[in-house]
Recover the amino acids of this structure.
């Protein structure tokens, strides 16, 4: 029996977190979540998730945005290596444009997904990073 | 004050011209008049002079006639007495009469007795015109005769000396009378009596006294008289420089030629010993009719020229004074008109320059006053109007600002709202699809259908939110095309297709992507993505189920043409024009009515394409296909 893959979801919208967790859990992933970056990072250090789903832009109180977070992850020895999938609510991220070829700067970031997320799309991207998922076993 | 100057000059000129004309006329008239009068007067003086001359002679004649009847005289002549016995008597008569000559002649014209030393006798006087006339007519003869030297010698050397003293020539003019002495009708003798005019003053002074009353004017005698022997002054009261009688001088040639030569009187201004006189010269004839001299009468011109000048001066002064008064009057009158006009002109100028508060404030009861009043009223009105306009303008500005603010607020709100909508939308869609796709358990057909319906609504909702968000950004100018060198497929097309993957599969449509791999374009990927999202989503929506969607790219020179083609009902021709307008719909056909669009999509696409410097358009074959194409300028490089 293989260990269930653990995914950290960080988003400031409660509903989004809820919806994503429901979906992920329904296909057998283990999830943890946070609504703020700091909390999310602490959680990540404690629980070492296999993947982080981060929201790029936070409409809440000032805090590092998704990119900032990914740099934090990259530079944090405890967090380094954990892959990140960015969730974006807007097509233009603070005036920055992005293309889809990751380079050194984006190392942790494996994909950008746009909201609203289609379940099948999300799951597909997750499988690209983590490999084919284990079905939930009793 | 140009008007004032003009008027003043004009009036000055007019007055000057009139004044000059009047002055000239006055001068001419006064001159003529005065001279005419003077000349007339002088003629009268001459007549008077002659009267006096004649009277003198007449008196002499009377005296002689009485003498001619004196018994002793007659007896001597008639009965042969000794004439010498008469001498003392006759000499005393002569002296009493103040005569120079008193001779008694025999009936044959020989002198029997003289009453002046040296008492010559015996000479023949038949050549004497007076004597000749008496001999011929047995009547008295009176007049003026010339006595040559010979005669003068005989009469008495004294007389010669007198003539010499007067004129340097031993010639004299003699005014005398000769009467016959008759006894019983028979001529028994002739008595001749008379005086030498040369050097005498009686006649001329008598003329002067009678005619001119011996008036003196400015130290000069007003009237003068002269008797000329030929052209020699022999008796005169004309004074020379030293105040003496100017005997021995000559008359002017001009006068002498006319009077002596032609025997006609001459009237006119004459310079008599340097002084201007108004003169008349008459010829003096002897009894034979021969011209022997001239009688001159003259009036001091100065008196009359002074009068003339004074009159003239007075006249001119009056004219000048009158003109000046008139000029001043007119000047002030004109000024009274020009001043307010000037004020009005100034005020109008001020008004035209923008100062609407300028008023003229002229109180008059005439047309100018009316004009001024109207002007002020006009100023009032203009000012009021301008103030009102200012007011309106301010109100409009305020209104405009308010509108703009409202609009801005609205747009911002729109952006904010739609932005805010995205999150719940995200959760909703995700949640729905999670259930619908069976992740939370299998669904029965009815459940599936129901959720399908919800999914469609949510999709539409999502489209709308996206479009309104884009619209708000467009309106706020936030959709700025930040062009970059991008790979069309990977940056734009593939993600767009990916996002629509679900709908495409649901409708069983096939996508043929003929855009070359690696095709690079200069464009804003985000904005271009919006375009493709919209065109593709339209293609899916309006295309037939199970039909194909074609994406193409064509290069030509500096233009890249991209297109999205779907097979479906196409676009009705009458709708083509409205396609790219705001809020356009193609939902009038029954088939299309099931599909909904926000109506904004194509409008935004157009804006974006045009921001890139390109153009967008639609082609269609109704009932078969619809194709949307747009161009992007700039060079395109293949990444081969």
């Amino acid at each position: 029996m293989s260990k269930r893959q653990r995914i950290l979801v960080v988003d400031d919208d409660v509903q989004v977190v809820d919806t994503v967790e429901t979906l992920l859990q329904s296909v057998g992933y283990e999830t943890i979540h946070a609504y703020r970056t700091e909390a999310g990072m602490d959680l990540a250090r404690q629980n070492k998730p296999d993947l982080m789903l981060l929201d790029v832009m936070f409409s809440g109180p000032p805090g590092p945005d998704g990119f900032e977070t990914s740099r934090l992850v990259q530079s944090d020895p405890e967090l380094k290596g954990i892959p990140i999938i960015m969730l974006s609510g807007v097509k233009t991220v603070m005036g920055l444009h992005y293309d889809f070829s990751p380079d050194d700067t984006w190392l942790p970031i494996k994909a950008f997904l746009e909201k609203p997320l289609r379940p099948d799309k999300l799951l597909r991207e997750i499988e690209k990073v983590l490999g084919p998922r284990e079905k939930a076993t009793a | 004050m140009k008007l004032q100057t003009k008027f003043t000059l004009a009036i000055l000129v007019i007055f000057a011209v009139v004044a000059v004309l009047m002055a000239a006329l006055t001068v001419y008239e006064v001159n003529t008049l005065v001279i005419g009068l003077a000349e007339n007067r002088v003629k009268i003086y001459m007549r008077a002079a002659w009267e006096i001359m004649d009277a003198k002679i007449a008196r002499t004649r009377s005296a002689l006639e009485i003498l001619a009847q004196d018994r002793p005289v007659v007896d001597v002549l008639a009965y042969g007495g000794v004439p010498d016995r008469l001498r003392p008597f006759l000499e005393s008569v002569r002296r009493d009469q103040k005569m120079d000559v008193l001779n008694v002649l025999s009936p044959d014209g020989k002198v029997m007795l003289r009453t002046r030393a040296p008492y010559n006798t015996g000479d023949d006087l038949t050549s004497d015109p007076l004597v000749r006339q008496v001999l011929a007519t047995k009547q008295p003869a009176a007049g003026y005769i010339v006595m040559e030297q010979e005669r003068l010698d005989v009469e008495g050397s004294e007389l010669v000396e007198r003539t010499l003293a007067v004129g340097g020539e031993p010639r004299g003019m003699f005014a005398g009378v000769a009467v016959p002495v008759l006894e019983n009708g028979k001529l028994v003798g002739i008595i001749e009596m008379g005086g030498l005019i040369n050097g005498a003053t009686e006649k001329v002074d008598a003329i002067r006294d009678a005619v001119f009353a011996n008036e003196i004017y400015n130290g000069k005698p007003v009237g003068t008289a002269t008797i000329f022997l030929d052209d020699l002054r022999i008796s005169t009261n004309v004074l020379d420089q030293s105040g003496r009688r100017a005997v021995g001088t000559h008359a002017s040639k001009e006068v002498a030629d006319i009077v002596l030569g032609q025997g006609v009187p001459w009237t006119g201004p004459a310079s008599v010993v340097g002084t201007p006189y108004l003169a008349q010269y008459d010829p003096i004839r002897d009894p034979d009719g021969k011209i022997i001299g001239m009688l001159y009468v003259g009036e001091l011109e100065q008196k009359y020229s002074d009068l003339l000048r004074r009159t003239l001066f007075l006249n001119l002064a009056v004219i000048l004074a009158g003109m000046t008064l008139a000029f001043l009057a007119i000047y002030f009158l004109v000024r009274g008109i020009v001043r307010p006009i000037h004020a009005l002109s100034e005020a109008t100028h001020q008004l035209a320059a923008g100062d609407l508060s300028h008023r003229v404030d002229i109180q008059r009861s005439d047309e100018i006053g009316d004009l001024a009043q109207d002007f002020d009223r006009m100023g009032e009105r203009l000012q009021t109007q301008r103030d009102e306009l200012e007011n309106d303008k301010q109100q409009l500005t305020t209104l405009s600002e308010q509108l703009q603010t409202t609009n801005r607020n609205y747009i911002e709100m729109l952006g904010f709202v739609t932005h805010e909508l995205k999150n719940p939308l995200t959760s909703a869609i995700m949640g729905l699809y999670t259930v619908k796709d069976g992740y939370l358990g299998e669904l029965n057909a009815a459940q599936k259908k129901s959720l399908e319906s919800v999914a469609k609504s949510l999709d539409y909702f999502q489209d709308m939110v996206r479009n309104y968000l884009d619209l708000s950004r467009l309106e706020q100018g936030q959709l700025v095309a930040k062009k970059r060198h991008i790979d069309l497929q990977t940056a734009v097309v593939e993600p767009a297709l990916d996002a629509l993957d679900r709908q495409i599969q649901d409708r069983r449509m096939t996508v043929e992507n003929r855009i070359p791999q690696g095709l690079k374009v200069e464009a804003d990927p985000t904005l271009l993505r919006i375009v493709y999202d919209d065109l593709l989503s339209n293609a899916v929506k309006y295309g037939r189920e199970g039909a194909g969607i074609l994406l193409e790219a064509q290069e030509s020179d500096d233009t890249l043409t991209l297109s999205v083609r779907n097979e479906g009902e196409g676009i009705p021709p009458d709708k083509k024009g409205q396609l790219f307008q705001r809020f356009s719909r193609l939902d009038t056909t029954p088939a299309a009515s099931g599909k909904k669009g926000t109506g904004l999509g194509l409008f935004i696409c157009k804006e974006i394409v045009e921001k890139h410097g390109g153009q967008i358009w639609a082609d269609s074959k109704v009932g078969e296909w619809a194709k949307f194409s747009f161009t992007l300028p700039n060079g395109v490089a293949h990444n081969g």
